[in-house]
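Dear U.,

For the methods section draft, I wanted the exact inputs and outputs in one place so we can describe them consistently. I've listed the two proteins in the order they'll appear in the manuscript figures. Please don't edit the token lines directly; just add comments below if something needs changing.

First protein:
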Amino acid sequence: MYVIKSQETKGAKNQNSVEMNEMITDPKVRLISEDGEQLGMMSGEDAYQLALDKKMDLVKIAPQANPPVCKIMDYGKHRYAMKRKKKKRRKSKRRFKLRKCV
């Protein structure tokens, strides 16, 4: 006879390697506003200054692109929303482990 027991696992993947604000040193970046509107190509310093004026963060979202794509956003709010989404997905997902009863 087998008993189905729920099993929880913790994800080992960390996404702390996001370049933002002063860490972006590229000479040219493609900039996207907080509304999703493309603002065009500009220097990294100008993009950072624009983000500071709006009191938001400049986040590199596509570092492998040429030129890299950066977005103006509230990164704290974005991280919170992603954490809530992940928690909701984890809650709705079912994981089972078969265990033999003697």
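Second protein (the one for the lower panel):
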Amino acid sequence: MTTDQISAAIVAAEMRAAERPPEPWRLRWWFEDRSGRLVLGQAPNLAAGAATGLQIIGRAPFVPQKGRAVAGLLGQVATGLWGADELIRGVTPARRVIGAATLGVLAARAAGQRRRRT
């Protein structure tokens, strides 16, 4: 198969997927990308990796208190960036929902901390 044939097949599949109406009642729909391919896993992006690493450092007992506080705050920021990125550019509907839920949890935590301070 030549690259032109492969490109034509991909374009045809994307056009068929675009013509289908959304079917959120189907479990598979939540895990399909825009071309109709099933996406169950994906390598983490930089924001996800940074958020995970910073959250681990923020909870490590051998790190000084100030370092844990800074790492924890930066981890929250990286988590928010990751959630916003997934909400906007998520490959599947499930990834976009996870991004929205992440932002919701961060907002609820921030509101709870603000209430405790006042």
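Candidate sentences for the figure legend, describing the second protein: Residues 41-118 form one domain. The first helix runs from residue 3 to 19.

Thanks,
Y.
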